Amino acid sequence: xxxxxxxxxxxxxxxxxxxxxxxxxxxxxxxxxxxxxxxxxxxxxxxxxxxxxxxxxxxxxxxxxxxxxxxxxxxxxxxxxxxxxxxxxxxxxxxxxxxxxxxxxxxxx
Amino acid sequence: xxxxxxxxxxxxxxxxxxxxxxxxxxxxxxxxxxxxxxxxxxxxxxxxxxxxxxxxxxxxxxxxxxxxxxxxxxxxxxxxxxxxxxxxxxxxxxxxxxxxxxxxxxxxxxxxxxxxxxxxxxxxxxxxxxxxxxxxxxxxxxxxxxxxxxxxxxxxxxxxxxxxxxxxxxxxxxxxxxxxxxxxxxxxxxxxxxxxxxxxxxxxxxxxxxxxxxxxxxxxxxxxxxxxxxxxxxxxxxxxxxxxxxxxxxxxxxxxxxxxxxxxxxxxxxxxxxxxxxxxxxxxxxxxxxxxxxxxxxxxxxxxxxxxxxxxxxxxxxxxxxxxxxxxxxxxxxxxxxxxxxxxxxxxxxxxxxxxxxxxxxxxxxxxxxxxxxx
Lengths: 109, 375
Ligand SMILES: Cc1cc2nc3c(=O)[nH]c(=O)nc-3n(C[C@H](O)[C@H](O)[C@H](O)COP(=O)(O)OP(=O)(O)OC[C@H]3O[C@@H](n4cnc5c(N)ncnc54)[C@H](O)[C@@H]3O)c2cc1C
Prior knowledge:
The complex is a heterodimer. By secondary structure, chain A is mainly alpha-helical. Chain A contains five helices and no strands. Mean pLDDT of chain A is 77; it is low at 1-24. Chain B is α+β, with helices and mostly antiparallel strands. Chain B has three domains: 9-111, Orthogonal Bundle (Butyryl-Coa Dehydrogenase, subunit A, domain 1); 117-214, Butyryl-CoA Dehydrogenase, subunit A, domain 2; 223-374, Butyryl-CoA Dehydrogenase, subunit A, domain 3, CATH 1.20.140. In chain B, 53% of the residues lie in helices and 15% in strands. Chain B contains eleven helices and nine strands. Chain B is globular. At the A-B interface, helix 2 and helix 3 of A face helix 7, helix 9 and helix 11 of B. Flavin-adenine dinucleotide is lined by residues 87, 118-122, 127-128, 152-154, 192, 195, 200, 351, 354-355, 358, 360-361, 364 of chain B. Chain A: Residues 44-99 form the Carrier domain. Chain A: This is Carrier domain-containing protein.
């Protein structure tokens, strides 16, 4: 899996115009991360660091896993289909942030 | 007439077709334990058995709210046909959720063109505890190999395809299995208590070999995660089906109570009988409201839908089971003919407290949720 920063640095500027958002990549990353963290903290009533493993810490139950998936799709207007449905993509706030940025920038419907 | 939206037209036509095809035949189907295959194929070919599939794949593209009303309409006529809708809808949703573009193009087309499908989670040793599944799905080069045994699979006796969940790697996976593949054996469950004509069967998979592209995406995810999505669809569908059961019960109980005379007055004039009608009314309103909320969550793709689906299913199943018992009480001997609407409702509704997360499993999930939100 590519790291969020390198992938975002190269793809985001070219993709910024179609969505009408000219946010710089770094700000974009921060905004996604903050939205995800807020949702997780509200639902788990726990402070959630961006790199904490959500599964090994038991923060994510079976129902909550699906809520998280739906939240990612709804909040960021992306569809997480077939091959993107991996545990690694949802393992932490950082991983989900990378996924969102990749799906937004990727251009395939 | 004010002009209905195109989608509403689709729903209205679907409801009309269901009324025509099912009519008053459900009693006989229940007694025979068999649905006519031509009826299922016709409903399926019109896209009605999985009506939320987008038009791009040949579906009716109904919203969850509209499909819910359609499900309740069918559920009021025949819970066995409604069970087929729930299963086929779950199969389609699983493909839509987990499948690649190619898999969606192939399988969703099949499911909207008259082919029939069920979904297999349960096993002899894995009912409530799906983590105990022992069915295995393994990839050997360009082949996917399936071994195991599934129990009580709705529609399996009629199905062309089954979406089968099993262990895969360190987690779980789902495969689309044509039932005519060598190694697949379908054995009908004899004499089910309810939804008798829904084609429940036990299915054995013995070294079943399929092209690797039959394995859906998400393979390797924990079993809980993989099945929650399909079950969430199933819960919303079952809940709406229970709304249908309550409507059938209200219709039967209210018309009987209005006409049958005892002690010189209609039964409804006896307050203890009227109370049954009042409680049935409340049960229907509460269940429908909860279902509408879950469907709204589905249509808005809001995270709340996951818990709303469990809530709606749990509430509606309990109301349907108690409501059906009350309806039998109001009709008394007139409702005691096996196969009749309230007798079917009584048996069918009880099973709704068992499937898609039993009462107890729903309570465990909701208890955990309540603790998280309110503590
Ligand atoms: C009509 C019908 C249709 C079905 N269709 C399908 C289908 O299409 N596909 C499919 O995969 N399966 C299907 N099933 C199987 C169904 O999913 C299971 O019956 C259900 O999950 C319950 O499992 P079980 O019957 O093994 O009961 P068990 O798991 O053995 O449970 C027995 C009882 O113990 C309770 N219990 C279990 N664990 C706990 C716990 N931790 N705490 C408290 N109570 C607990 C249960 O709630 C239940 O009351 C169908 C079943 C029926 C009856």
